[in-house]
Amino acid sequence: MTEPLLQVRDLSVLFPARRGAPPVKAVEGLSFDIGPGQTLGLVGQSGSGKTTAGRAILQLQKASEGSVKLLGQELTTMRSGDLRRMRRHMQFVLQNPYSSLHPRMTIGQILSEPLQVHRTVPANRIRERVEELLELVNLDPAMTRRYPHEFSGGQRQRVVIARALAVNPDFVVCDEPVSALDVRTQAQIVTLLQSLQQKLGLSYLFIAHDLAIVREMAHRVAVMFRGRIVEMGSAAQVYDSPAHPYTQLLLDAVPVPDPVLQRERLRRAPPDLRFLDGDGGACVQGVDHVRAGTSEWHEVAPGHGVSCRYWPQGRSAAA
After folding, report:
1. 235 shares its domain with 267
2. Are residues 231 and 246 in the same domain?
3. Going by C-beta distance under 8 Å and a sequence separation of 6 or more, which residues neighbour residue 220?
4. Measuring CA to CA, which residue among 299, 298, 301, 278 is closest to residue 288?
5. CATH code where residue 107 lies
6. By residue range, what is the domain housing residue 280?
7. Which of 37, 41, 120, 140 is most buried by a 10 A CB count?
8. Tens of pLDDT, residues 207-237
9. H-helix or E-strand containing 55?
10. Rounded to two decimals, what is the model's pTM?
């Protein structure tokens, strides 16, 4: 089997609280792999820890515990100089394309900056490389003298993607890259990201709350709830056979144009929602993992796992 490009093991991020309160667990015990040329979709409601997880993987946020290996190199203990050199292998595409571009820099200057910092091309080739990057994201190379405010939202996001690709990364974290765009432009950016992945062999961590887009993009999907992954599997497994009630809630919230399907949803018995307030039944072993601070994992099917405490099939089977 091909070695994973990215390996995340037991990653946790704790934020200190004020006035002697216990620290806030923004991310707890995340473990997953992403292979070369693969996309892992990370989904969950706002505040579930998705963005913090992405920032911790890129070492933009210090992890409290755990391991992050990219290309076999441990990032969490890497010295600053070595980490700076590793940054050309991992890049970030942010949610808001306007706020992530310097308003007083031209597009040519914005795309030149990472090339100058990482020295990936000779100085006499920077202009040529900038034009190549614009063509790569389907923008006119003649636009290098324009400023961000002269572009549409979709064009600005293409510039952000071009900047991320300037240093030839292997791994890109896409944090809600289409949420600020209209539906038509969203489809265009998703198609562009897929095309770039095939052309350049990129690996993505695709963070989003829009499940329809994640299904289009991701090979595997991880569902986050309160800082933990509660279900993970292939896109088909998670979407067609959700095992966790929280995953079912997310999927049921997606509007469908088929009235027959909508009626079937209404007839379906609602999932057990006690987990939403931190209470609820114990797992197969009789442990309340919310109170105990642990997270048992059960394999529903090969490659499809779910937090044991929330797996009703497991409880009934044990009974």
Report:
1. no
2. no
3. 32, 38, 39, 40, 41, 232, 233, 234, 235
4. 278
5. 3.40.50.300
6. 241-319
7. 41
8. 998 888 999 999 999 999 889 998 999 999 9
9. helix 50-57
10. 0.87
